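Question (not urgent): is this output format expected?
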Amino acid sequence: MKIKRPEINPTFFYGPVVAHKFHGNISKDKGKYRIRFSLYFKSGDEYKTQKSGFDTKEEAEKAKEVIIAELASGKYIPFSYTVKEYFDYYLYHYMMEEVGIRYNTYQTYKNSLYNYLLPGLGERKKLQDIHSSDLQKVINDIPYNGSKSSCMKITKMVFAFAVQNNYIVHDPSLLAIELLKKGMPKKRKRNIPPYTIEQLGYMLLTCKEYFYDMYMPLLLSLTIGTRISETIGIKYTDVDFSSKTIYIFRQLGRDINASGNDSLVTQPLETKTPNGVRAIPIADWISDEIIMKR
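Got this back:
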């Protein structure tokens, strides 16, 4: 089915603050002092706000100076978002709409953000109230090293983006990730020797005799080095039999914006990167095998 997208806080689309205006002088409000001002954003939206709760007028004056300095340097944080509000925007707009991630990448991000980080941090917790110790505990509690490692990478990107876009001042993931790395087991190098020509030949022969439907995808993957998604996307029209060349134009997979059955994995998609479009020469006997298959 089509991915259900949550409603995103519209203030994420306001863009940076481009101007501001203070309203009147510092005034009293319920026995405390307050500063009232408006912010004007790149989108054209205006946001009226105030900072209050100051015990003395001097405290309010100093706070106003800080606000002016932050606005001038572009470091002012205009809105306070919850963890869920921010995750919704980051995954369902920034990653899906602007970055254009694939379906499998979406699933990886969704798993880390919504199955691990969000339950551990709490949906209503303010993004600015998250400390490195919070992230360290949540990620440490993940029972699987693979999921833990993936969550660490995504956490680092998510909070770096938050700092870059003035959603928070400091990045709590920096210290958390450094401390978590020390507790992670070192990856063991897999000492797997490459297949010999004889082993590859035996593999292909066995597949051709007993699993014929898998023979051509296996043959192409082994000989031209395409990804599985690219291999199953090759058409006969992509093969130039005169020059013995296969052209890779597409891959098959699930379109992140498509509607339909969850198991649908046969939609033509662009290659993973622009460099994925390429021409690969093939041997005469591979060309013969393709002709025989056809």
